[in-house]
Specification:
This protein is mainly alpha-helical. The chain folds into two domains: 97 residues; 131 residues, Intergrase catalytic core (hpI Integrase, Chain A), CATH 1.10.443.10. Helices cover 58% and strands 3% of the residues. Strands 1-2 form a two-stranded antiparallel ribbon. A hairpin with a 5-residue loop joins strand 1 and strand 2. Helix 1 packs antiparallel against helix 2, helix 7 packs antiparallel against helix 9 and helix 7 packs parallel to helix 11. The longest helix has 21 residues. It is globular. It starts with 9 loop residues before the first helix and ends with a helix. The N terminus is likely disordered.
Amino acid sequence: MVDSLGLHPASALALRWHDHLSRERRRSEHTVRAYVATAHRLIAFLSEHLGGSVGIDALLRLRPTDLRAYLTRRRTTGLSNASAARELSAVRGFLAFVAAEQGREASLPRLRGPKKPRSVPRPISPDEAVSLAEEAGEDASLPWIAARDEAVLMLLYGSGLRVAEALGLAGAALPLGEALTVTGKRNKTRIVPLLPQVRALIERYLALCPWPLERDQPLFRGARGGPLRGEIVRRAVRKARRSLGLSERTTPHALRHSFATHLLGRGADLRALQELLGHASLSSTQIYTAVDAAHLMDVYRHAHPRA
């Protein structure tokens, strides 16, 4: 590796990408830091791999074998499948930014991201839930849509809502507090907690949303100002889970399952969980005891040296 990344013309591009992600895309500080670090790692690796200073032309001429070599090097550091997939997503984003800056069509090397092995349904981890929400915004065409997608998905995970319940929220829910009143199946209403982090994401979306937020109008809007459709949310999740290498079973509804499983794993009472989920009967909630047991067995099998 070279002693200083400043020797590479491409390093200036990484700095401009930092500004693009933080100012134009309004990505979180954590995401910006992680993605820009990936860009610098790629540049440093390519200087050794290609044997010279790395500039714009070198980045735009990369082949699948170059990216595969980079990921192989990164995997030697113990990167998991999900982290390696996110690394590849960051690389693709950086290369697309470089092409756009040069007024050229992005021609990215085709390379399938690492996949997790197929398994029985499992809740995703809290880190994966956050990564899924952030990644969903990466393909958004406008900053307010990116903020919207991230807010919706974190609301599903943070409050355990069904997709229809989240999209059924109206401007009457404002101003946001520590809880939300949602309308579920059979028009039953219930109170759910609103985490400060999720509230901040929704408020960021509201600040960017170009459409008026009337009390009787949907809180989450589609690109043309109408109600946001569930299919748009599911499409965003499909793209994000492919980028992260998550299972096809990772759907918007899986975020609600993860909410329930994680609460149960932390000692939540079944009756309280029933109320939070809006289940009509306790038997509907009891399925999560089996899911949680399966999750614990999965942890055991991966952690015990003789398993």
